[in-house]
Every structure is written in C-alpha cells, then in structure tokens.
Specification:
The structure is a single chain. The protein is an alpha/beta fold. Helices cover 58% and strands 9% of the residues. The chain has four domains: 1-77, DnaA, N-terminal domain (GMP Synthetase, Chain A, domain 3, 2-Layer Sandwich); 89-260, Rossmann fold, CATH 3.40.50.300; 265-330, Helicase, Ruva Protein, domain 3; 342-434, Chromosomal Replication Initiator Protein Dnaa, Chain: A. Helix 3 links the parallel strand 2 (38-42) and strand 3. It is globular. The protein binds adenosine-5'-diphosphate and magnesium ion. Adenosine-5'-diphosphate is lined by residues 108-110, 115, 140, 142-148, 271, 274, 299-300, 303.
C-alpha cells in the first residue's frame, strides 16, 4: 500500500463512514508525481477538489507527518489540471520543483483600484525577471490575492522553463530542519540558492525564528547576487513585522514594496463572475450581486460560497435561486457579524420544538430531548465559532469527544434522511432571521 493510501486510511478513522465513502474514497494519490514537499491527490471534479482542499488538506498533511515525519503541502486537484500544466510546458521534471496552481494566472486576476499597483508590479517583474524590482514584496490582508499574483508570475516563469520554487515559510523551515537532521545541508542550499526564481509566501512567519532567518538571509544574498528574482508576500509592511532582523527588514525594501487593499464592489463582482466561469457554476446577476454584498473583505470566501451553494443544491435537489442563496448564506452573514450566541440558538431550538431551553442543557435522556440537544449542538457548531471543548462545557458534556460524537451522528442523519435535513435547514433559517 502506498503512503498516500495509508494516510487516507488514518483519516478514515477520524471521519464518518458516509463522509469517507462519499468523498475521501474518491481520492487517488499520485505516488509518482508526489515528492517529500508535495503530496498530490486527485479528485473527480473541480468543486469537490476545491472543497476537499479546504476541508482536508491540512489534516492530511498532518497525518503524513504522523506517518512519515515529513509534512508535505497537500494538493487536492484534478488529474488533467496537472497533466495539462505539464504537457503545455513540456518541462523536465527536475525543473518542476513546485506545484503552482495553474488557475492562478494574470488573466484570472481581476484588477481594480484596490490591487492595480500590486498587479502592475508583479506583471512587470514577470516580464523581466531579476531586472526591475528585486525583491518584490507584496503585502495585504488575508485573501486579497497575494498568493494568486505571486503564483501568476511563477506560472509565467515556469512556462519559460525557469526553475521556480514556491514555498511557504513553514515549508521552508520544515525542509531546513529535515536537511539539518539528515546532515544534507548542501542539498538544501543547492536547492534554494540555485533556482531561478524564489517565491516565499507569508514571510511574516519568519518573525522571532532566528535560525531560519539566518539561513534565509544567506539564501537571499546568494540569489540577489546572481540576479535571480525573489518575490515575497506578507500580511504587513516589512517595517511592521516584529521580531525580524534589521538586515532582512531593510533588504525587503530594496526592491519594491506594493500593497493590496480590499476590493471595491465592482472588483468583487468581477471576481465572482470569473470564479463562476472557472468552476462552471451558473449564477444570475442578482445572486452575484448579493454574494458581493455578503462577503466583506476576504476574497477567499467566494470560492467557499460557490462550493457551498453547489453542495447544498445537490444535497437538497434544489436550483440555486436568490432565496436559496440567501438561506444558504445566512450563516455566512452571521459569521461576518458574529452576533449569534449559543443562548439565542438554544432558545430558538427550544421554542421551535416546544421544550424549555434549560431542558436542552440538562441531562435528561428522553427521545425528544436527545433529538433537540443534537440539533442544538449541530447548529451551535455550524453557526458560531465555538470550539468543541467550549460546546462540551456549555452543554454539560464530559469532553470534546462526546461533542464530536454527537456531531458525527447528526451529520450522518443529515446525509441519510431528507426530511430531517430539511427540518434542520428550516430551523437554521429561522434562527438566522431572529438576529436580523
Ligand atoms: P492571499 O494570499 O492574499 O491570502 P489568495 O491569493 O490566496 O490570497 O486569494 C484568495 C482567493 O481569492 C484565491 O482563490 C484567489 O484566486 C482569489 N482572488 C483574490 N483576489 C483576486 C482577484 N483580484 N481576482 C481574482 N481572484 C482573486
Ligand atoms: Mg496567501
């Protein structure tokens, strides 16, 4: 059995049988293309792959670490996405050091006032590697397109046959530790100092890690000296990253520092339309507009919303119209406003099921109380940010495993029983409207 399959078997023990059968079982591990840095799994379609990437990739990466001591970046993707990328570029495998998301391209990046400066900077770097702004430092909030832009340049470089390394600080650090442990530092240095382009994401995580800052400093110097392009991203300006050596801080400003601001409504609409096109989801104009008003600043939410709409419409056999969208996204709106409390949920569930709120939190074990308690726990988990231990405490349960058991059970019921599923969704809609 290959390691990928072993890891999926480990995962199987942590999720429900139905979840496993429906989703995880469909994953295929690509042993040949996977490396110690990247584990590649294929999913049957793009929405499932996007959803699974979000839901399981970190967990799978962690399970790899449990099994093998390596913690690769996990990519759950479509088989032909990678094949296409490879065929198109016809590259030697050794050049293909990093897996870049092939849909992170300039043409898929919607430009507006908020991001045009960063866009123009990355675009010009992609046309003249190492010659214009080196390093190029992008900064901005979560989900505003930093990784997308950086990889768009990476995709161009790769298509020109350049060796591109894309890595997160965490990955760089893990790689460093592994080579130290195996006493193969020359290979580490060869890898990072001999590439044509180095892309490092979320550089703020270098903060207060002296050993790796030292190593990174030398990598930086070697690349810069050889005229190789470096692109970095962070959630803030280099000056504002605490715990960063002065010499690194100043070097980060040597080239160009470009920021990305949250998108305007028009840009959000363009991004949503573009994502629909890529994911082959058809939405009417009023739905697109509605989604644009629901998401606040984080563009990453858009893909989550599209997968959610798709999954719910399949699960409930309903078309995606505006009412449906509003229902499905009510909790999204809640998350953004975060004003729904556990007490409100309990109260609504109790009212709806004709029992007392205190009974839901009691130790009573009648059929109807068990039912109400399960539904309440499920909704608390879905609609608030509460953690399992918090819920265990709130519901007077032994510990978080009791909560996770309940949630698993209810997820099974939701998948199995159509009537139940609709009841829960109705209840959810009502609760959402309570806080409107
Ligand atoms: P960051 O790295 O800044 O946290 P990402 O680059 O990961 O953000 O972007 C999050 C998601 O939003 C990605 O799916 C990306 O493709 C998308 N995205 C962000 N900005 C844009 C944009 N201007 N046009 C199209 N997609 C965008
Ligand atoms: Mg990013």
């Amino acid at each position: 059995m290959n390691i990928g399959q072993e890891v999926l078997n480990l995962l199987k023990e942590e999720i429900t049988e139905i979840e496993y059968q429906r989703y995880i079982k469909q994953l295929i591990y690509d042993q040949k293309k996977s490396t110690s840095d990247f584990a590649i799994f294929y999913a049957p379609n793009i929405l499932i792959s996007n959803w699974m990437q979000r839901k399981y990739s970190e967990k799978i990466s962690y399970l790899f670490e449990v099994k093998s001591d390596l913690k690769p970046i996990v990519s759950i993707t479509l088989k032909n996405a990678i094949d296409k990328q490879k065929n198109k570029k016809n590259l030697e495998p050794k050049i293909q050091q990093s897996l870049l998301n092939p849909s992170n391209t300039f043409s898929n990046f919607m430009v507006g006032g908020s991001n045009q400066f960063a866009y123009a900077a990355v675009k010009s770097v992609s046309e003249k590697a190492g010659e214009v702004y080196n390093p190029l430092f992008l900064h901005g909030g979560v989900g505003l397109g930093k990784t997308h832009l950086m990889q768009a340049a990476g995709n161009i470089f790769q298509s020109q046959g350049k060796s591109v390394i894309y890595t997160t600080v965490e990955q760089f650090l893990n790689d460093f530790k592994r080579h130290v442990r195996n006493k193969t530092m020359e290979r580490f240095q060869e890898k990072y100092r001999k590439c044509d382009v180095l892309l490092i994401d979320d550089i703020q995580f270098l903060s207060n890690k002296e050993g790796i800052q030292e190593e990174f400093f030398h990598t930086f110097e070697a690349l810069k000296e050889a005229g190789k392009q470096i692109i970095l991203t962070a959630d803030k300006h280099p000056k504002k990253i605490d715990g960063l050596e002065k010499r690194l801080q100043s070097r980060f400003e040597w080239g160009l520092v470009a920021d990305i601001q949250p998108p305007e409504l028009e840009t959000k609409i363009a991004i949503i339309e573009n994502k629909c096109l890529i994911n082959k989801v058809k939405l009417s104009k009023d739905i697109v507009n509605y989604i644009a008003t629901v998401i606040e600043n984080n563009v990453r939410e858009i893909e989550g919303i599209l997968s959610k709409l798709h999954a719910y419409s399949q699960l409930m056999h309903l078309d995606i119209d505006l009412t449906f969208t509003k229902n499905v996204l009510k909790d999204q709106v809640q998350e953004n406003h975060a004003n729904l409390t556990l007490d409100i949920i309990i109260k609504s569930v109790a009212k709806e099921l004709n029992i007392k709120p205190s009974e839901i939190r009691s130790k009573g074990r009648s059929q109807s109380l068990l039912y109400a308690r399960r539904v309440a726990i499920h909704l608390c988990r879905e609609l608030t940010q509460s953690t399992m231990p918090q819920l265990a405490q709130y519901f007077g349960m032994k510990d978080h495993t009791a909560i996770s058991h309940t949630i698993r059970r209810i997820n099974e019921l939701i998948l199995d029983d159509e009537n139940f599923r609709i009841k829960v969704l109705e209840l959810q809609t009502k609760i959402n409207s309570v806080t409107k």
